[in-house]
Amino acid sequence: MPRRYFTTQVEKGQACLSPEDGHHFVRVMRGKVGDQLVICDTNAVEYLGTVTAIEGEKVTLSLSEGYPTVAEPGVEVTLYLGYPKQGKLEEEIRHGVELGAARFIPFFSRYCVATPKKEEQKQERYQKIAREAAKQCGRGILPVVELPLPDFTALCARLEREGYDLVLFFYEGGGASLTQVLAARPKAKRIALITGAEGGFSAQEVQQIDPLVTRVGLGPRILRCETAPLAALAAVMTLTGNLE
After folding, report:
1. Which residues pair with 50 in a beta bridge?
2. Angular region, 113: left φ>0, alpha ψ -120 to 50, beta rest
């Protein structure tokens, strides 16, 4: 199977790899003129590309007709993740990309164990992880990892601005049936999922966010903070027909 690369430099039947991908193709993969690659324009359209020129690490390709990427789900899911400790966020992002999430927005809340530290540098690494996961699993877009929201009030303000079709708040205290909520909202296409960090949510935070969300549960077991968002995402993708 041809290797997959993302690029925004697609025009008139030709494309160029990004400098980073050009380096990888030339220096790591020992690529050559005539090699075929799958090129994705980050807007869920992909092409079969044939390498026509290599100048240093600049790689130019001729492209077939574009065709829709089949791997993108029919719902656009944003994961709001209570900031976990000890690198768990990396795994949440990596596996969340594989399951179809479009955006990741970490947030700090009252009972977060982790504290903000060098978040700009971390965000660059998280975005690279998302990019590599997207290439590996055949995504048609590059999922975005944002800088963390500083507190729970910022989270609530963001939800009010975004205007999602449906916001699901996965609360350890339980809530409505996820199956029934999604069945009642079949036209919801922009969906936000919110899960907490190790310490969960305070009573005040639950009261603050309640007017903005639909509370749902994930069964009778208490899931770890790194398990909950992936379980929630997989459940939503299954119930919306995107894991069939």
Report:
1. 36, 62
2. alpha
Of 68, 100, 116, the position where a domain reaches its end is 68
- From CA 19, how far away is CA 75, in angstroms rounded? 32
Residue 63: give the domain boundaries. 4-68
> In 3-state terms, the chain is what percent helix, strand and coil (to 5)?
35, 25, 40
Residue 57 belongs to domain with CATH number: 2.40.240.20
Distance, in Å, from the CA atom of 8 to the CA atom of 43, rounded to the nearest integer, reads 9
pLDDT, one tens digit per residue, over 150-206 is 999 999 999 999 999 999 999 988 899 999 999 999 999 999 999 999 989 999 999
Which of 175, 223, 219 has the alpha carbon at shortest distance from 197?
223
Phi/psi zone of residue 142: left (φ > 0), alpha (ψ -120 to 50 degrees), beta?
beta
Write out pLDDT tens, residues 55-67. 999 999 999 999 9
Residues in the chain: 244
Domain shared by 144 and 223, yes or no: yes
